[in-house]
């Protein structure tokens, strides 16, 4: 097997395609959940791995003061343009930084959100531990941490060179995605090798990169949260508040700082 990427690798290249792909896959099915959670917070909200602002902007439009942090400059550049277009500069603040070492004062936030499997990009145990400890540091006592996990990636089937998406991005560009999935089951890693082809007029370009994710079970994540100073107070199986079970489409953990 090829060496798996570090969790943060690939996202700069993915920035150009992230919104296009997610409009066809996850769409906005989780957005209302994060809006409700943020609206219930009594204070400022932090989003880990805010990317292009897919969640940050709707939360800001809903009336919440939000800070988003991301490591990827190309992702944040897209988010900043969207914030300006929406006139949300006073409500949505974007910061480039490392979620393992959050550059904020202690007890700054009442809610930290980690949507769409962002913590699964932390492929090393020490990186996950550092991130949870950092989140606990910037949360006020009793503040909440919300985590969204993609279930059971290690049981996904491996495949090679499968065309998964195709369509237009903007008015002039045709995009197609050919994807391969490979597993490192010993480390519970799933690696998505992405091959995007863009065609604009007579110009044809190939974009290759890989994204790596790590899977932990709900009990495993709950134990790590407890070690970092949290108490898990809810585990959900959908974005409407339904109960969790091992076959749920999503795994959402809500925890409070002790």
Features:
258 residues; alpha/beta; seven-stranded mixed sheet; 6 helices
Can you put this structure into words, describing what you see?
The protein has 258 residues and is an alpha/beta fold. Helix content is 26%, strand content 36%. It has six helices and eleven strands. The protein has helices spanning 11-24, 31-40, 56-61, 73-86, 125-138, 218-227; strands spanning 45-48, 66-70, 92-96, 109-114, 139-149, 159-169, 173-184, 189-200, 203-214, 230-236, 251-257. 34% of the residues are buried.
Describe the secondary-structure layout.
Elements (H helix, E strand, L loop, with lengths): L10 H14 L6 H10 L4 E4 L7 H6 L4 E5 L2 H14 L5 E5 L12 E6 L10 H14 E11 L9 E11 L3 E12 L4 E12 L2 E12 L3 H10 L2 E7 L14 E7 L1
Parallel strand pairs: 1-2, 1-4, 2-3, 4-5
Antiparallel strand pairs: 5-11, 6-7, 7-8, 8-9, 10-11
Helix pairs in contact: 1-4
Radius of gyration: 18 Å
Helix content: 25-40%
The largest beta-sheet arranges its strands as 3-2-1-4-5-11-10
Could you state the order of secondary-structure elements as H and E? HHEHEHEEHEEEEEHEE
Largest sheet: 7 strands, mixed
User: Structural class of the helix and strand makeup?
Assistant: alpha/beta
Q: Could you name the ranges where pLDDT drops below 50 across 5 or more consecutive residues? A: none
State the end-to-end distance. 42 Å
Write down the overall mean pLDDT.
Answer: 93
Q: How much strand?
A: 35-45%
Question: How many beta-strand segments?
Answer: 11
Mass-distribution shape: globular
Q: Count of DSSP helices?
A: 6
């Amino acid at each position: 097997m090829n060496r798996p990427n570090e969790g943060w690798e690939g996202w700069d290249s993915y920035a150009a395609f992230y919104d296009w792909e997610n409009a066809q896959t996850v769409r906005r099915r989780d957005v209302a959940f994060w809006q409700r959670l943020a609206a219930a917070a009594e204070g400022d909200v932090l989003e880990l791995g805010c990317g292009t602002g897919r969640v940050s902007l709707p939360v800001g439009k809903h009336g919440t003061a939000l800070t988003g942090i991301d490591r990827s400059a190309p992702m944040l550049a897209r988010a900043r343009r969207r914030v300006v277009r929406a006139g949300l500069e006073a409500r949505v603040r974007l910061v480039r930084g490392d979620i393992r070492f959050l550059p904020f004062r202690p007890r700054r936030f009442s809610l930290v959100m980690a949507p769409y499997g962002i913590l699964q990009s932390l492929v090393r145990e020490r990186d996950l531990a550092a991130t949870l400890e950092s989140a606990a540091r910037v949360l006020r006592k009793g503040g909440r941490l919300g985590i969204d996990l993609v279930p059971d990636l290690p049981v996904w089937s491996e495949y090679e060179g499968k065309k998964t998406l195709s369509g237009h991005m903007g008015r002039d560009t045709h995009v197609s995605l050919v994807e391969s999935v490979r597993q490192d089951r010993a480390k519970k890693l799933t690696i998505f090798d992405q091959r995007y082809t863009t065609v604009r007029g007579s110009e044809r370009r190939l974009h290759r990169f890989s994204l790596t994710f790590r899977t932990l079970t709900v009990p495993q994540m709950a134990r790590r949260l407890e070690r970092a100073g949290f108490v898990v107070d809810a585990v959900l199986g959908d974005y409407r508040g339904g109960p969790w079970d091992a076959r749920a489409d999503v795994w959402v953990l809500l925890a409070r700082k002790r």
